[in-house]
Amino acid sequence: MPNKKMNVLVVSQYFWPENMRINDLVRDLSEKGHSVTVLTGLPNYPEGHVFSDYRRDPQGYSRYVGAEIVRVSLIPRGKRSISLILNYLSFFTLASTLGVWKLRGKKFDAVFVYAVSPIMAAIPALVIGRLKKAPVFIWVLDLWPETLRAVGVLRQPLLLGCVGRVVSWIYNRADYLLLQSHGFFENVQRYCTREMQPQRLIYFPSWAEDDFSNVAPPPSTLLTHDPSVFTVLFAGNLGEAQDLPAVIDAAQTLVGTVAVRWVIVGDGRMSEWLAEQVQARGLDNVLLLGRHPLEEMPGLFACADALLVSLKTNDVFEKTIPGKVQAYLASGKPILGMINGEAAHVIEASGAGLACPSGDAAALARITLELANAGENERTRMGKSGREYYLANYSKPTLLARLEQLFHDATLRKGRP
After folding, report:
1. What is the CA angle 290-292-293, rounded to 5?
2. Which residues, at least 6 apart from 334, have a Cβ–Cβ distance to it below 8 Å?
3. pLDDT at position 276, please?
């Protein structure tokens, strides 16, 4: 690994104090001595409004572990589809104009895009990369426009076609496309109208934040371990894609059958619906803890007997591995998956738990009961197998060292020392 320190620009619509994996990457690059600048928006995910702590003290969020944060205004994502679309449009428009102006005079060796939705967040990176003569790396974590169709944000073929042309324009102008799943390659290549050299399409999966590798996490202040009840924990965004109606149906199915409590941690567009359903159905075995900082998660995970990942089924989601899967594997806890495709394959190949078809509430209830009855020794074995699989396939030090090497090699190809 070369020792050269680099100036890296990270472009991401989402960043600290929002809980995102890009925070982890920025911190590690900065701690290794690289000069990191982050171009981002105002923190509003997943609640849909700008965080009150940020509004009170925006200057307190101008640096993160040595990295400089450059923010542009945006329209908060809100709770409706139209506000979400305006949120996407406002960020890439202002980042491509005001953001470029705020970064005037700065030089960068590499530009890195954290490309969860929206993919248009890559547009300001391409503009800046062209102006600064720096290679642009896009970490493709969602498939567009297919994801828009899958979650119901856009259904009109004409509009989806327009977004597809934007995606093609972005992919063809990036220097490197880093793909989080093997299942992404075929889809991404469809939008590459000019030949993409093999070295420009790179498999680059996600990792888990360091907190989840702590063998002795601090005790949780939010939940107490109860050996008399089997605890299933879901952590993350509470949106349409997570298929929460099926999760609630499974929880209701097991009432009176076995002592199971379902702990749901997070926030999102389905939060209000979820609270209403829990109350309307009288599900006292479902605990809604709300949104909490990342550092609270390892302690919560330690209180659980199994960790749940769920995702609706369609041709897009089947190719995706939700980031929480790596966190679950790293934590050494068994996994329950109501999910298809790549993620189900990882759960089964790792021996980390049990998976059932997406959207199948009855099957989720069945495998939950099976895991509850499996015994502590079997669940410990599953958790250990998952942890070993994580270290072999998603080790953060290995992945970040590889990213540094990619940055270095790209600067040499650009003719920089």
Report:
1. 165
2. 305, 306, 307, 352, 353, 354, 371, 379, 382, 383, 386
3. 96
User: What per-residue confidence (pLDDT) applies to 1?
Assistant: 47
Which candidate, 241, 358, 233, 244, places its Cα nearest to that of 285? 233
Q: What distance in Å separates the CA atoms of residue 187 and residue 200, rounded to the nearest whole number?
A: 15
* DSSP states of 231-267: EEEEES--SGGGTHHHHHHHHHHTTTTS-EEEEEE--
For the chain, how many residues are written?
417
DSSP one-letter code for 109: S
Low-confidence ranges of the chain (pLDDT < 70): 1-3, 150-154, 194-198, 214-215, 414-417
Quote the pLDDT of residue 253: 95
Residue 150: predicted pLDDT: 66
For tokens 């907190």, name the residue. Answer: 211
Task: Name the burial class of residue 68, with classes exposed (0-12), middle (13-18) and buried (19+) by CB atoms within 10 angstroms of its CB.
Answer: middle
**SS3 label, residue 375:** coil
Tokens of 285: 């075995």
pLDDT of residue 158: 86
What pLDDT does residue 215 have? 67
Neighbouring C-beta atoms of residue 370, cutoff 10 Å: 12
Query: What pTM did the predictor assign?
Result: 0.81
Q: Could you give the CA distance from residue 353 to residue 263 in angstroms, rounded to a whole number?
A: 18
What pLDDT shows up at residue 333?
A: 94
- 181-203 residues labelled b (16+ CB within 10 A) or e (exposed): bebbeebbeebbeeebeeeebbe
Report the alpha-carbon distance of residue 203 to residue 184 in Å, rounded: 9
Alpha helices for 282-394 (secondary structure H): 297-302, 323-331, 341-350, 361-372, 376-393
DSSP 142: S
Q: What is the average pLDDT value for the chain, to the nearest integer? A: 90
Going along the chain from its start, the domains and CATH numbers come out as: 7-207+395-413 (3.40.50.2000), 210-393 (3.40.50.2000)
Tokens linked to 217:
């996490």
Which has the closest alpha carbon to 81: 152, 142, 14, 149?
Answer: 152
Q: Based on the number of CB atoms within 10 Å of its own CB, is 417 exposed (0-12), middle (13-18) or buried (19 or more)?
A: exposed
